[in-house]
């Protein structure tokens, strides 16, 4: 899907689909960590079972913990559909007071653009495929 958006002060998702996520006009294939604060890097995941595993969430927690100011929202895009991780996987986010929202990756892309476009601090962990 192609997205037309207002100019961003940070990264903007300009398209997404089966081929990957396009950020500021640049296509990125595979899983991705993206923040309104400038982070744009591959999200190294253990793809042995074809879905998100508990250890995959560690990168999100690690990055969030390194921030001087907390994120207003953490988005976990879980692929074609929303996959709600088991409670023990989410518990570290709750203990640290991190606002995690889980949704399909397409919805996470759209939500990221809305929240970042409002000038709010957001981190998206985007699992592919769509």
Give an overview in words:
There is one protein chain. By secondary structure, this protein is of the alpha/beta class. The protein has three helices and eight strands, in the order βββββαβαβαβ. It is globular, with a radius of gyration of 14 Å.
* Alpha carbon gyration radius: 14 Å
Q: Could you tell me the number of beta strands?
A: 8
Fraction of residues in β-strands: 25-35%
The secondary structure category is alpha/beta
Order of helices and strands: EEEEEHEHEHE
Main beta sheet strand tally, sense and closure: 5 strands, mixed
Head-to-tail CA distance between termini:
11 Å
What's the SSE blueprint?
Layout: E1 13-17, E2 20-23, E3 26-28, E4 32-35, E5 40-42, H1 58-65, E6 73-78, H2 87-95, E7 100-103, H3 105-117, E8 122-127
Parallel strand pairs: 6-7, 6-8
Antiparallel strand pairs: 1-2, 2-3, 4-5, 4-8
Can I get a quick summary?
By secondary structure, this protein is α/β, with parallel strands linked by helices.
Keywords:
single chain; 130 residues; alpha/beta; 5-stranded mixed beta sheet; 3 helices; globular
């Amino acid at each position: 899907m192609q997205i037309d958006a207002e100019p961003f002060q940070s990264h903007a998702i300009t398209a997404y689909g089966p081929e990957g996520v396009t950020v500021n006009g640049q296509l990125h294939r595979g899983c991705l960590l993206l923040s309104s604060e400038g982070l744009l890097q591959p999200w190294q995941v253990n793809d042995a079972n074809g879905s998100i595993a508990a250890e995959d969430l560690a990168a999100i927690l690690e990055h969030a913990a390194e921030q001087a100011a907390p994120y207003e929202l953490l988005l976990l895009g879980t692929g074609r559909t929303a996959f709600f991780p088991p409670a023990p996987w989410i518990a570290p986010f709750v203990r640290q007071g991190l606002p995690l929202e889980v949704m399909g990756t397409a919805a996470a892309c759209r939500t990221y653009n809305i929240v970042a476009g409002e000038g709010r601090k957001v981190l998206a962990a985007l699992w592919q495929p769509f």
